[in-house]
Write a structure and sequence with these properties.
single chain; 522 residues; alpha/beta; Nitrilase/N-carbamoyl-D-aminoacid amidohydrolase; six-stranded mixed β-sheet; 12 strands
Amino acid sequence: MRSDPFLIRGSLLISSVLLTWLALPGNFSFWPLLVICLVPLFGLLHDLSSIAKALFSGFVAGIFFYLLQLYWIVPVLQTYGGLGWYLAVPALLLLVCYMSFYPAIFAVGFHLMDSRGPRLMLPFAAASLWVGLDWVRSWMISGFPWMDIGYGLWTQPRLLQIADLVGHHGLTFFIVMINATLFMVVQRSYRNLERAVGVILLACICMPSVWYSVDRWEKVEKLVDAAPVALVGVAQGNVEQTRKWSPEERLRTVKDYVRLSTAATAGQDPSLIVWPETALPFYPRADELLEPVSEFVDFSGTVLLTGAPWFEAEHSRTHHLMRYYNGALLMEPGAGFSFGYFKSHLVPFGEYVPLKKYLPFLAPLVEAAGDFTPGTIDAPLLAGPIKAGILICFESIFPDLGRAWVEAGANLLVNLTNDAWYGKSSAPYQSWAMTVFRSVETRRSLVRSANTGISGFIDPLGQVQRQSGLFVEWAESMEVSLLSTETFFVRTGYRFAPICGAAAVVIIIFSLLRRNGGSDRW
């Protein structure tokens, strides 16, 4: 009885999608699956006879994978965006199709390198291409680097330490390289010598990385033990998004945060108290609801960092312009607001409408979207010994923003977010997991305050010290280490990922220039 090729290929594709999904945060987080999750996909691409089939297979794999990862966008758009299902579902499908473009391109590149390129270069080439495409996705059309495969290791801090050299992309590189090497080992068309050399090359690359991680763990641990500390308090109000902005609930929200902060700092003298993104559900420049907040700050003698909307007016002879910001504001005892940071990387279709000037028909689709102005990263916000670099909402998934803050002098990263939008989905867990890597990349403690969770404290080694649950009130104070060292990643930025992408392009061009494949390819 002949096997059905379509059924076999479909099984391989779905197997890779499910294994990867099960390995990543927000689902089962069973990270050991990361070392085999791509092997079925590589086997599928190896057996295909044309570039067109590889392109289609990669695109379909991306469709299934990103539907599993991003399903929560539909209820977000329906509940908080005011869109009917007939608009929310197409919006999700449009995003998923765009995201699937990247695995489709990878599939074509892998097929070419496997069928025509130098065999022994395949693991390195596949890993380089994957990382290069991840990097492009992180900035193309504003960027959406959600759930890169390297984030699956977030629960294993001892394996993350190389991120201070090459960022989270380095972990992605090793995961893909291991999968490609295993594919070579199990694939019959590869000769025994090729398999052996592939394993040896993998060991030659991975062993120094393991040694580096072990060595860095010990050295950074000593730095953390010797570093100055500061006491920081965090409040999680658990305010439902549907009632947060209602006029009758705003005072209650403020009182809840004051109550939680008072409990978190009882008998202590913290340098800073952190409230979430838009914890103040009003414009605080001229609102009587600010009074209980000012009274709390003055009475406690503690500096408060809170999220709040902000506006500034610009007047000239020809026009009057109002600029609105998603802000993080510092309030000092007896001085009111002293410093602030305005979110610099806005959420497309959530805080602004891309290309609105040229595509005005988009505006009705996102009536709930704000019209915010992006800010800039300048100097860290000061609170006693703390020099805080601020990441608002999904800014925490962009490594370059955390790097920029540390480069500007920050000795602590603070993430203010409101993940209530996501509901009880996988998204809050995914967002929290990605945030862990910002600590390792920069060697900074990270404090996170989220409206409905997950809030917590992460040390410079990437260890979660404390964390809250979802949709519960939570308030904690903890001493955090204030390191001042600069990592290689902070000094050099995104070098590894674009270099990987360039290397992959060179190998693909070399593969295209070859007239044919063959068993003698080295």
